[in-house]
Amino acid sequence: MSCLLDLHREMVEGHSRRVGTVLLLFMLAPLAWIYGLVNRIRVLSFQNGLRSVYRCRASVVSVGNLTVGGTGKTPMVDFLVRFWLEQGKRVAVVSRGYKGEGGHGVQLVSVDSPVEVVGDEPLLLAKRNPEAVVIVARKRRIGVEQAVEHHQADVVILDDGFQHLQVDRDMDIVLLDAARPFGNGLPLPAGNLREFPSALKRADILIHTRSADHDSCVAGFTGPQFHSSHRLDNVATRLEGGSIPLEELSGKRIVAFAGIANPDKFFQALVGVGIELAARIPFPDHVRYTQNLLDRLFEEAGRADYLLTTEKDGVKLQPKCFPVPCLTVGMTLDFGSFREQLIEVVKKLEVRNR
Fold this sequence. Notes:
By secondary structure, the chain is α/β, with parallel strands linked by helices. The chain contains ten helices and 16 strands.
């Protein structure tokens, strides 16, 4: 099974021409085209009025992507929430709550919500933005309706909403990983695309994330394109409370672990700010910390001064789990010189259909 997963990863990343990778691509490519075609027909059914679309009186903004995996959607949602809160707006986030067990109803997320019910990303957004309303709903339409009718939201942000067309929106923001925006160019299961790249014509704004330079762009896209990089917060937070500047971790024995889409990017970011890592422990995205995993981390902690992980992982952990302090560090999107341009575009699009 491990060998097959390695072949699939190599196929999606397009880095290998091994015989096994090529054969797997040959077998899965027809299914990928069928998947892409079915999704295209689904989109057309909404665009041509064959399926109903819910329209509400609030401004609705979707943040999404074309690929499976992390491009920085949660930091982007966090950025928008903070921006509109600063403008005095009542802001709501509606998420599906990936791997949460909330069933098919609607869950209002608070800072004390059980992560196993609401999911790690909605809980993280609620903790970072207690003034905002965060709702988990398997059916986005119901979640948006509750945000507007029961919480009087002025702005509703659809987390991972680009493919969820049951809700009309005033703005579609799509994030692309600048290094590999379309993977190997194929939809699932032969690639990591949810839709063909032509779907970007529905987008209003493209954000190229993890963009070290500003050369990446999508040819033929007529809307604004911006670039961002992922930046670690300057301080780390202890699970039991309190904080410590990242610079004070220099020279300490640090064991880092992460259960996100790209754990290696997190580890590289830590090294980039001068933190030496005694060990790096990657886990799958949205990992659940079972007792076996906690035992493994407990053992590693015995050889460390600190454990260090992401904010997203931190919402799933308790300080009593470890014999040494466990720290979490947040990550934000840094738009650099593009920030003010992006804000001006967002302001205009917010009232586009009002």
